[in-house]
# Entry
Amino acid sequence: DAKTTQPPSMDCAEGRAANLPCNHSTISGNEYVYWYRQIHSQGPQYIIHGLKNNETNEMASLIITEDRKSSTLILPHATLRDTAVYYCIVRATGANSKLTFGKGITLSVRP
Amino acid sequence: DAGVTQSPTHLIKTRGQHVTLRCSPISGHKSVSWYQQVLGQGPQFIFQYYEKEERGRGNFPDRFSARQFPNYSSELNVNALLLGDSALYLCASSLGWGWTEAFFGQGTRLTVV
# Structure
């Protein structure tokens, strides 16, 4: 699976959009980008995934660059409850379903 | 609907002992994976089971073993516990093979003393 690079931390103000970047320059054509988050002391929570088109669901939007070498997870109106570690993961489907987590990015939402 | 349930939530064991952790997947999910998360790190893949067969194994010693039952629940066993086995053990369930929209339980916090 391709490796991802995320900054260690970032913060944003409550009510503002949080834009979390991820670099995956070695991504292959059959690899998807997945985002999970982990709120303190809880299990990771699936957020969204995509291949090459932008995706949106009730939690977030995923913007993948045209060359697929990077992506951005957007939380449109961050709340204090969005404070968590966010993991960007790249992997192909149809094979071993393991998720390879890095250290993620710690998002702190301030009042 | 019940999510992924793990038991126990917390456990304290002594070095050298054996431990069994349990996981019940979401109803209808046939695949269960186990992860270990030590403090300050992301979860690390241990095993995946699908239809009662091991389908993947991470870089963990043979002291770690698992199995999946006909009702798709799963057990993770760790023998000869070491202090370094202290971690949060997470179970994730997914619909099937190659399906990575995985749903995690709250984990079992294991402390080895």
In short: The mean pLDDT of chain A is 92. Residues 10 and 107 of chain A are 5 Å apart (CA to CA). Chain A touches chain B through 23 residues (CB under 8 Å).
